[in-house]
Amino acid sequence: MAGGPSLMDSLFQRSLEDLIKGLRLHNLAAGTAAGTPESSTFVSKSIDEVRREIKSTDQQTKTTALQKLTYLHSLYAIDMSWAAFHAIELSSSTIFNSKRTGYLAASISFNSSTDVILLLTHQLRKDLNSGNPHEVSLALQTLSSICTPDLARDLTPELFTLLNSNKGFIKKKAIATVLRVFELYPDSVRVCFKRLVENLENADVGIVSAIVGVFCELANKEPRSYLPLAPEFYRILVDSRNNWVLIKVLKIFAKLVPLEPRLGKRVVEPICEHLRRTGAKSLAFECIRTIVCSLTQHELAVKLAAEKIREFLTEDDPNLKYLGLQALAAIAPKSLNAVVENKEVVIKSLSDEDVNIKFEALRLVMAMVSEDNVAEICRVLINYALKSDPEFCNEILGSILSTCSRNYYETIVDFDWYVSLLGEMARVPHCQKGEEIENQLVDIGMRVRDVRPEVVHVGRDLLIDPALLGNSFIHRILSAAAWVSGEYVEFCKNPFELMEALLQPRTNLLPPSVRAVYIQSAFKVLTFSAYFYFYPEEALAASISEVGESVHNGWCEQSSDSVSGQTVTFSEPDEGFNPRMLHQPQKDASGNDGKKMISDLEQVSSCSVKMGHFTKDCLVGMVNLVESTLRPMAGSHEVEIQDRVKNVLGLIELIRQEIHGCLVPKEEENDRGELKACEIVRVMHNALSEELGPVSLSAQGRVPLPDGLELKENLSDLEAICGDFRIPVLSSFSLEKPRSLEKDVVTVSDQQNEEECEPSSESTSLLTEHRKRHGIYYLPSEKKEKVPNDYPPANDLSMQDKVNDEADYLVKLTEKSLVPKKKPIAKPRPVVVKLDDGDRIHINEKLTELKEDLISDAVQEVLLGNQAVASSSRTDKSDKSSNRRSRKEAFRPLESNADSTTVEIAELGNKNSRRIKHRTHGKERSHRSSKKATGESDRSDRPSSSHPHGKHKSRQRADGMENVAAESPVIPDFLL
Amino acid sequence: MIKAVIVMNDQGKPRLVKFYSFQAVEKQHELIRSIYGVLCSRANNVSNFIKVDSLFGPDARLVYKTFATLYFIFVFDSSENELAMLDLMQVFVETLDKCFHNVCELDIIFNFNKVHSILDEIILGGQVLETNSSEVAKAAEEISKMEKHANSVTLVPSISGWSNR
């Protein structure tokens, strides 16, 4: 009864068709949603059936079972690795259907980790030798999809035979399979390469097409090796009329031409001819692509290509339009004219309904950006962004941001405009580029001194708009706005308004990290206000310090006087709110010099004068506002927020104390040394107005090594290890690194502030010390001098114009250019890494250098790395072969010299014969190797590829020698 | 080189899946779902390309074409010409049409094996081998004839064996 169940199975077995019908039924019943329980129970039931049936001894039953399983595997992602052995079993069946099923299952489900795969070797060999072409073709198909190094090695002889098959049907399949075999078992190249090359001259288009396809793949990986075949490819390029073949040949030449410029001269004419004559768009496009990628030195060809691209662009077919735009993008770096000529089409394509076309057009528009038109283009693009869908809108914003920031904003002349554009972008409804805008706002604020007032202005506009707080995408931008407002608070026209904006109730919508920035900015604003209140003269003096160092000094001496005088005045409420009045009493109080200076100041810094609002009442008002808002947050669970709130509250305590202290006569307090709070505010202000700047990539390198610190050796090791990784990071995200350093700085200063809140002069001095030392980590101060003058004159000029109208503006302007010097007087700190031109250029040069290194590295890698990989996959003897290869390459240019060629060949032959003796895998190797020396070919650089020549020549030695003689001069001739 | 050929219907159900470099089957289906996600959001009269760098690697391109309820999808790398791939797709569909006489989705659903053998005649190991649909159809017919022949031969002994018992 053993046959019983199997018989029943075969009679009542569900066929594949039944299975499919069942699946469809269950899917329909279960609605459209796939993977519903019902259909999955059906699937698992079917698999159970398959598991039972597949064990059947009846071939037909087994076949059907495997078919069902394969179907489920392929379309329902059911595991079938357990059935691998059954597939192999069926592939050995004499019934074609079963064999086919077995092979199909194998080719779909096997991979290199399938352990039974080696059991297939024998069957594959048998079928490769079969008389039935369809069986051979099955075996070839299977081999090409599941080939492993072992299979490749074992079946290379069969493939070699098939490459000479008289049936084109088989031959071309064998050719395509050879490609996979080459990849997995490079030694097979030595066996089969010659036959491949011979077939290049085959009359059958199908075979040539297959061969050219294989060479196209090979040349893709390592083009240099196939240069010697250029004459054959050239012949095909000129003679063939088959578009498939021509496309592949063009692809090969696109790889070869850059390696050998002389080749370009030869092929450019036939390619242009094809481009002119062909009616096939695919071939035309391939010609265009070859020209714009590889033949850009040939101006006529490029011109022709540009014409043809234009035709593509005017087509209605969106595919052609898309490809045309792509080609245009490829041509853009070399011939921007071609793009500009098609400007209209490109701009129109921006509003195409096809996303691909829109994106491509956007890329092209960005390629057209230059200093002169950046404003115009950005205007147009922002308008598009406002109208388009969120995805494309953000694509536009992203490309504006990346284009404008390219190379340290090299296209931007008018930074005021750019900063206000950033502010505008934040208000684009779909804007999701918060992070990038944030980075750029902060970055520009730090790098471009002159633009700070505008940055603060833009920041203010963003901060005071409560509606923006509801949009989580722009929280990052708000964070940047808050940061710049706090950091450059001296440019703020109305600190009180700013403070209100920073503390408005809707800020509770912000994520904690951004809120912490808000509070930190509030801290800075408060410090600044308090400082201004306590030391108005100093604050003013600082802002005009460039006018005269003496002013500052003078004020320092007189500070105590004036403070007392001033505070007394401030206590009179009426005058407090009039900025002009504010300074009147001061004049009386101060000395003669001071008087004069102050009257100057009053006019010079009317921006700052607005801060004259900071009468006592006003400060108290601000303090109260801050306190009432922040006090409840002191218990926040967010550490960042809590921390900063505590800082602010600490500062408030100090200020309070001082304000109340004001009632007591100042002199006494001074004598008793109780004016600490005032001093602390000043120190804090000074600390906060230290400039944070971008840090040079090489900053770390300029840090002098402290005595006794032995890091150098280890670090240089590290450099060797990490060098490769660091470079790409820097070139693509060059701003990232500086910023992270800056963040460190910020935290450092935060700590400092925090500690400064404690009224301990000791720790303060320690921290100042620390800061001083910390300063070492920035660029040396040499750059500082360049700062004020070098900044884009255009900017200044435009400013000047406006200035004429408004005194305020004048003040602002002067103040702006003066601010830089505010700090340096305190101590010659090198922290002032403003982005000055010198520095920028320096960094740029550095970057380009790095890039070139990268490029040449990549080239090296492509040329040699691949070989290394290829040879490493061989046995260790191949070390020699790679040596030999590189030597051969070195010799190639000299090959026109016949003597050196022959010497080289002889040498190679010797080497080969030596090497080959080591090899063990070929059965007949040893007896062949003795002859090899004579026939070693120079046809290809690859030892692997040259080997087969040797091998064949060993068989047909007589003509082998002739070949060598005939071929070697041909190549240089052709190339010349 | 062609990386994958996929046929799926407008519901995103795969009908034919062939990858030319090994991918775990779960990964294949994940890719198919991602592709479908992009495909179904595209209008009818737009270009036939999709950017698939994120799915298949930096060099990869994808063309697709809609035939009735089916999406035909070819994924390939820079060694292939985009427009030629569209032509090849046309060849594939023409061949299917010849083999099934006015091919429709059901033909492809129920002729899993035959569709595979047709595709295998056109593309082998990612290389385009035959671009003439008549040649392909001829080969495919030969194969199915052999299969049928083999089937009728094998059925006889199994039944006779049964009747003898």
From TrEMBL, chain A:
Keywords: Golgi apparatus, Membrane, Protein transport, Repeat, Transport. It is found in: Endomembrane system; Golgi apparatus. Residues 874-892, 933-944 have a biased composition (Basic and acidic residues). GO terms for biological process: Golgi to vacuole transport; protein targeting to vacuole. Residues 42-522 form the Clathrin/coatomer adaptor adaptin-like N-terminal domain. Residues 912-931 have a biased composition (Basic residues). It comes from the Eukaryota. Residues 564-595, 869-976 are annotated as: Disordered. One of its GO terms (cellular component) is Golgi apparatus. Adaptor protein complex 3 (AP-3) is a heterotetramer. Part of the AP-3 complex, an adaptor-related complex which seems to be clathrin-associated. The complex is associated with the Golgi region as well as more peripheral structures. It facilitates the budding of vesicles from the Golgi membrane and may be directly involved in trafficking to the vacuole. It also function in maintaining the identity of lytic vacuoles and in regulating the transition between storage and lytic vacuoles. This is AP-3 complex subunit delta.
From TrEMBL, chain B:
One of its GO terms (biological process) is vesicle-mediated transport. It is found in: Endomembrane system. Keywords: Membrane, Protein transport, Transport. Pfam families: Clat_adaptor_s (PF01217). GO terms for cellular component: endomembrane system; membrane coat. InterPro entries: AP_complex_ssu, AP_mu_sigma_su, Clathrin_sm-chain_CS, Longin-like_dom_sf. Residues 1-146 form the AP complex mu/sigma subunit domain. PANTHER family: ADAPTOR COMPLEXES SMALL SUBUNIT FAMILY. Belongs to the adaptor complexes small subunit family. This is AP complex subunit sigma. The lineage of its organism: Eukaryota, Viridiplantae, Streptophyta, Embryophyta, Tracheophyta.
